[in-house]
Amino acid sequence: MELDKKEAEVVKKAIRYWEEKETVSKEVADKLRASIELRNSNVDAIAIYALISAISCGLLAFGALVIDEKWIELLRKRWGFSESIVGVGFALLSALFIYLARRRKLKSKSIRASTEAYNITIILTVAIAITYWTRSFANPNSNYAIPLLIATIAYGSIAVFLESTLLWTVAILSLAGWWGAQTHFWAHGSYRFLGMNYPLRMTVFGLFVWALSWPLSRIKNAQFLSDITYSIGLFLFLLAAWTLSIFGNYDDLSGWKVLKQSHFWYWAAAFTLVIAGLLYYSIQNKLDVLRDLCLFFFLVNIYTRYFEYFWDRTNKGIFFALLALSFWFVGRKAEQWRGKAVS
């Protein structure tokens, strides 16, 4: 079996442990060790870098052609195409790409990275199709959240069909945009919706997405979406909660600027308690994603509180020394956790 260097070390340690405990004989252990083949990591690295380069060049080409040159608009006006026709054309092109992606996935299930990179073309063509479709019937009083809702449904459906976590990620981000725009529309342009400002609304949204991973993990055809939904939902929840600890449920930016940050101390205290509680729970239950994200936001929270309350009163050298020490501490703890996981 082909393994990379780190995986091989873990397997060899396991074989050595079984041999010491006499779970397997020496002959079986030798056969297991002989069956290990080191994968060429240089080839993997070259493949990854080539994919990154291809994606970057593709996005730059898309930006240069569509955004800078606006060739779609030039062709549309030259041939007299309506915006609806352009939308239908790109929808058909998207359907072709989806068909090719599905066929590619069925034939080559092992090349997941390049398959996901190919899905970027689907993301771009669907975005153009939805843009022109919605522009064709838009008016000054229309709800501009509708295109984001259509995008969410389209990307989500395609993600399930192609079993693509990349497309599902775009669907969640589109849903986040829809939630912000739709609540703004429902609030008639006010910064409050049901008594919530934007940070509080996005905190609720992040909590919803995070919780969505639980039912997804119990649906057979959607289990592959559970982990990515868990990670994105948790990140959105913690990010929004962090902004909430800074702004509170305040809806007047000019009024917020003249207030002292100590006015929002209870929001900061609540965020700190939530982070500490989740961090303790993650360590106790060995939840790596929850632990790592909570640890990151715990440090961000400490630095945020420092800038809010102590930046003008503390020596800057001491601050950056503490910053370096904290990063060293995180790195040291990460090494210890990794050592325990391997042993």
Automatic annotation (TrEMBL):
UniProtKB keywords: Membrane, Transmembrane, Transmembrane helix
TM helices/strands, residue ranges: 46-67, 79-101, 113-132, 144-162, 167-186, 198-216, 228-248, 264-281, 293-311, 317-334
Protein name: DUF2157 domain-containing protein
Organism: Dyadobacter luticola
